[in-house]
Design a protein that fits this description.
By secondary structure, the chain is α+β, with helices and mostly antiparallel strands. The protein contains nine helices and eleven strands. The chain has helices spanning about 5-25, 30-65, 70-100, 120-140, 170-175, 260-285, 290, 325-330, 335-355, and strands spanning about 110-115, 145-150, 160-165, 180-185, 195-205, 220-225, 240-245, 250-255, 305-310, 315, 320-325. The strands form two sheets. Strands 2-3-1-5-4-9-10-11 form an eight-stranded mixed beta sheet. A hairpin with a 4-residue loop joins strand 10 (about 315) and strand 11 (about 320-325). Helix 2 (about 30-65) packs antiparallel against helix 3 (about 70-100). The N and C termini lie close together (about 10 Å). Residues about 230-235 and about 290-295 have low confidence and may be disordered.
Length: about 350
């Protein structure tokens, strides 16, 4: 389908939705879905109108420049046309960006999971640094962070953490953070001053809604046990901790941070639904495997995505060969947008190439 055909279809669909919304009673799910689609198409239609108007004006100025008897008017028309023609590629690019198929999950909240990898205590300390980085980044965006679970080691490092980050378009900003993050630095536990390499794994999942995933109760095995703290000592005398196993997929989720079994179960179900929804999205992505080759990363948690080199103050994102020498600002979350922005732009460029 040509670009012109795509634009025509968008405009016609927008007009159809406007007509139906004006005549149908509101309140139902279908009306809400139409309203959302209409709102999403409106910026595209506006950009298409701007592009079409500029194209018409360029034709009119071209006719004036070639047919005007007054040399001064011809020159003025030609200059305006040249200026307008220089703007047309920018307007067309804007329309194409808006035409890129939206990821339905982009507008959602995100489940953030961080786990210490290879490197022992230093890996746990680094995992803690990453957790704080995302917490500060979220704070700067006005997002809300709710810590679901936190497992620490004896020196304050994070063995594993899970959190819900809520706000506007959270998943669209954080979805490329999934993968293995590697750190190179002299550990505080190292007396010889040698640089060590450690790693932590980050997973960012779109928060699932009840309409996304239907879970049959018979597919779940729910075990309860006593929550335990560092070293294995019991922190309470009731079976408040919950372990949920989804039998068809084999996914296991445990929660024990709350004293209430009910709250732990609710949190475990939230994470289970997110993982099942993520797996469903992965299956759909694999069906579009050819297009995925051009996208930024695969989202695979075993993929090494980034290296933080403290001695050199350097951060490198290996997927787009981006290197920034402002590690301290990145690890505090202040400059994380300077990494996330190029990742989003690269993904948009690859998707644009598919439209051409």
């Amino acid at each position: 389908m040509s670009l012109e055909e795509s634009l025509s279809r968008v405009v016609l669909r927008h007009e159809e939705l406007a007509s139906r919304l004006a005549t149908e009673a509101g309140g139902g799910d279908e009306f809400v879905a139409m309203s959302r689609e209409y709102s999403e198409l409106s910026p595209i239609v506006e950009a298409i109108g701007e592009l079409n108007a500029a194209q018409r004006e360029a034709v009119e100025l071209g006719e004036m420049a070639s047919g005007e008897d007054d040399p001064e008017m011809r020159q003025m028309a030609q200059a305006e046309r040249d200026e307008l023609m220089a703007r047309l590629p920018e307007l067309e690019h804007k329309v194409k960006l808006l035409l890129i198929p939206k990821d339905d999950a982009d507008r959602r909240n995100a489940i953030l999971e961080i786990r210490a990898g290879t490197g022992g205590d230093e890996a746990a300390l680094f995992a803690g640094d990453l957790l704080r980085m995302y917490q500060r980044y979220a704070e700067g965006k006005g997002w809300r962070v709710e810590l679901l679970s936190l497992s620490e080691n004896d020196i304050g490092g994070v063995k594993e953490a899970q959190a819900v980050i809520s706000g506007r378009d959270v998943f669209s900003r954080l979805k490329f953070e999934s993968g293995v993050h590697r750190v190179q630095r002299v550990p505080v536990t190292e007396s010889g001053g040698r640089i060590h390499t450690s790693a932590a794994t980050v997973a960012v999942l779109p928060e699932a809604e009840e309409v996304d995933i239907k879970i049959d109760a018979k597919d779940l095995r729910i075990d309860t046990f006593r929550a335990s703290g560092a070293g294995g000592q019991h922190v309470n005398k009731t079976d408040s901790a919950v372990r949920i196993t989804h039998l068809p997929s084999g996914i296991v989720v445990s929660q024990q941070d709350e004293k209430s079994q009910h709250k732990n179960r609710a949190r475990a179900m939230k994470i289970l639904m997110a993982r099942l929804y993520d797996e469903e999205r992965r299956v759909l992505d694999e069906e579009r495997a050819e297009s995925r080759k051009s996208q930024v990363g695969s989202g695979d948690r075993s993929e090494r995505v980034r290296t933080y080199n403290f001695p050199q103050g350097r951060m490198t994102d290996h997927r787009i060969n981006l290197t920034l020498y402002k590690l301290e600002d990145i690890i505090t979350g202040d400059a994380l947008d300077e990494v996330i922005g190029p990742l989003i732009s690269e993904d948009q460029a690859s998707r644009l190439a598919e439209l051409d």
